[in-house]
Every structure is written in structure tokens, then in C-alpha cells.
Design goal:
Elements (H helix, E strand, L loop, with lengths): L10 E4 L5 E5 L2 E5 L21 E3 L5 H4 L2 H8 L2 E5 H9 L7 E4 L4 E4 L2 E7 L5 E4 L2 E4 L4 E6 L5 E4 L9 H8 L3 E5 L8 H11 L3 E5 L11 H7 L6 E2 L7 E2 L1
Parallel strand pairs: 3-4, 4-5, 5-6, 12-13, 13-14, 14-15
Antiparallel strand pairs: 1-2, 1-16, 2-3, 7-8, 8-11, 9-10, 11-12
Helix pairs in contact: 4-5, 5-6
């Protein structure tokens, strides 16, 4: 795929839904690793052994996904909000592997500067038939060591302070949900992209299950004339 945006050498692989693997400076970063139960994740990608960092936006099953198993196999550090980090420790992730931060905070991991941002959604997991609160949802702005700055929105609607995220961090690429029903759809994602001032959008959280009607072509139509590139991947494909 010929890109207008420069990824500065970072490789971005979409694993279906909101799950991504990103390669930077020899490190593997997994975002919301919903893998084994993800019907769109390629079979060869469902049980990876190598991960250096895992970034979690919130606690819903289709985002927390395989975090515990992947962290235990790989020894990866897991970055999340505080409540989720405590929950992960209760499920067998070593305390030294968790980094329980919160919105506005920044950590450095694998040469990347990672800031947790706001999101508007909910966050919980069903455990033994009970809903367990896992803190507020969030997103991340990641500045990789190669120079690429991206915004991973997690699950959210569009909100006015996305302009503040753009003003503060100047992301070039936004990973935005477009599925509708549980998150914003294409119309709202187009507004979000304009507020953020990004050069390109990589749509996520679409096509996984029934009831997620948003599609990249809908977003492209909503962004007609905006000069914002809509990147289109199939699960397992890599941008580089």
C-alpha cells in the first residue's frame, strides 16, 4: 500500500477489531490484544510468544482479551489504568510486569513516550458472573523512537477535547473506532479526525461482529475534501 503519511519505519499490523501489533526499535507493542476469541484475527497471530509491551485501553473482554496469557508467556510489561493493573495481578500477571498509570500521565517504554488520554466509554469485565469495575477507559498518544506520533483512541465517542489532544501532542496518525453502536461511527470519527488535526486515520473496531455497521469507505466519504488519508487494512496486513 502506497502511503501519503510517513511511518518513519514503524510497522503496524492490524489483528482485527482493535488489536494491533506495532514494531519499533526492535520492540513489539501490542494494543488491546483480543486474539484467540477474535473471529477476524488470523490463526497464525492468535498465540504469539513474543511481546515487549502491552497497552490496554479499558477492561472490556474484546480489549483485555489475551493480555494475561500473553504477558505470562512473553514477560511483557502491561500498561493500563491503575484498577486494571490490580485486576491483572489478581489473575497471575506479576506485579513487576504491570504499569498502572492514569490519564495525563506519561511513561517511557522501549524508547517510546506513551501518554494516557481521555476516552468516553465504560470499562468492566464479567468475572464469575459479576461485573467488576476496571477503572475509566482511556486512549494513548505514542511517540515512537523513530519519530512517528500516533493516537490510539480505544473505545470512545467523539468529544471536543480531542482538539486539546491534537494541540498538546500533534499526532500524525489516529487509530479510531468506526463500528457504531458501541463506539462512534464514521460521521463522528470524521469529526474526531478533524479535531485532532491528523494526516491519516486507520479505522478499527469494525466488521468483527454483527451490529458494527461502520466501514472505512463510510469514513472516507465523510472526510471527502478534508485532506486526511483513510488507511485500509485487512486483518493480518501490515503498514510499513
Amino acid at each position: 500500500m502506497a502511503l501519503m503519511i510517513d511511518l518513519h519505519g514503524v510497522h503496524i499490523t492490524w489483528l482485527g477489531h482493535s488489536a494491533f501489533r506495532m514494531q519499533s526499535a526492535g520492540q513489539s507493542f501490542y494494543f488491546d490484544p483480543f486474539l484467540t476469541q477474535n473471529p477476524k484475527c488470523p490463526e497464525a497471530e492468535k498465540t504469539p510468544d513474543k511481546a515487549d509491551f502491552i497497552l490496554l485501553s479499558h477492561g472490556h473482554f474484546d480489549h483485555l482479551g489475551d493480555t494475561v496469557a500473553l504477558a505470562q508467556r512473553s514477560g511483557a510489561k502491561v500498561i493500563s489504568n491503575f484498577e486494571t493493573s490490580v485486576y491483572l495481578q489478581s489473575k497471575g500477571v506479576a506485579a513487576g510486569q504491570t504499569m498502572g498509570m492514569n490519564k495525563g500521565g506519561t511513561v517511557t517504554a522501549g524508547g517510546a513516550r506513551i501518554t494516557m488520554t481521555h476516552a468516553q466509554h465504560s470499562s468492566s469485565i464479567v468475572d464469575n458472573g459479576q461485573i467488576v469495575y476496571l477503572g475509566e477507559p482511556g486512549g494513548y498518544v505514542v511517540q515512537f523512537s523513530e519519530g512517528l506520533k500516533l493516537y490510539f483512541a480505544g473505545d470512545t465517542n467523539a468529544f471536543g477535547d480531542m482538539k486539546l489532544i491534537g494541540d498538546l501532542y500533534q499526532p500524525e496518525l489516529a487509530l479510531l473506532p468506526i463500528g457504531d453502536f458501541y463506539t462512534m461511527g464514521a460521521k463522528e470519527a470524521a469529526v474526531a479526525a478533524r479535531l485532532l488535526g491528523v494526516k491519516a486515520v486507520l479505522p478499527m473496531h469494525w466488521g468483527t461482529f454483527d451490529g458494527l455497521p461502520g466501514r472505512p469507505e463510510h469514513l472516507a466519504q465523510e472526510l471527502t475534501g478534508a485532506g486526511i488519508e483513510v488507511l485500509r487494512l485487512q486483518p493480518g496486513e501490515t503498514l510499513r
